[in-house]
Amino acid sequence: MQITLDNPAFAPQPLSPYYSQVARVEHADGSALLFLSGQIAEGDTLAEQTRGVFETLAALLEAHGATLADVVSIRTYLTDISKLDEYGTVRRRFLTGTPPTSMTFEVSRLFRPEALVEVEVVAAVPAR
């Protein structure tokens, strides 16, 4: 098993130098698990931020030969759980197949005061 920590050069860069955006755990058969750090995005509304988050997640996955269809687990942190439907409407545009396992939490705030949502995912990449 090989573990690689990565901030892909052509994907949006992390907001802080103190973490890696992707941990790739590669198995001997060439399959891998990708653990993506929580992502936030700019925008005035929860829908705008959610769209930006999923676009960033898609870019990070693409850098490792994966897509949103490879996501097997998702954790979402919302600052207002009453807006879960607004978040879900955007999420369903990006995760169109069988839904992954999921946990959603309401939090009092995120590390950036303007952030309304943060999403982290795990993806399973089959051997090539």
Question: Characteristics of this structure?
Answer:
128 residues, alpha+beta, 6-stranded mixed beta sheet, 6 strands
Share of helical residues = 10-25%
- Give the strand order, joined by hyphens, for the main sheet: 1-2-3-6-4-5
- Termini, distance in Å? 16 Å
Class from helix and strand fractions: alpha+beta
Q: Can you characterise this structure?
A:
- This protein is α+β, with helices and mostly antiparallel strands and 128 residues long.
- 22% of the residues lie in helices and 32% in strands.
- It is built from two helices and six strands; from the N terminus they run βββαβαββ.
- A six-stranded mixed sheet has the order 1-2-3-6-4-5.
- A hairpin with a 5-residue loop joins β2 and β3.
- α1 runs parallel beside α2.
- The two termini are 16 Å apart.
List the helices and strands and how they pair.
Blueprint: E1 2-6, E2 22-26, E3 32-39, H1 46-62, E4 71-78, H2 84-94, E5 101-106, E6 117-125
Parallel strand pairs: 4-5
Antiparallel strand pairs: 1-2, 2-3, 3-6, 4-6
Helix pairs in contact: 1-2
Give the gist of this structure.
This protein is α+β, with helices and mostly antiparallel strands and 128 residues long. The protein is built from two helices and six strands. It has helices at 46-62, 84-94; strands at 2-6, 22-26, 32-39, 71-78, 101-106, 117-125.
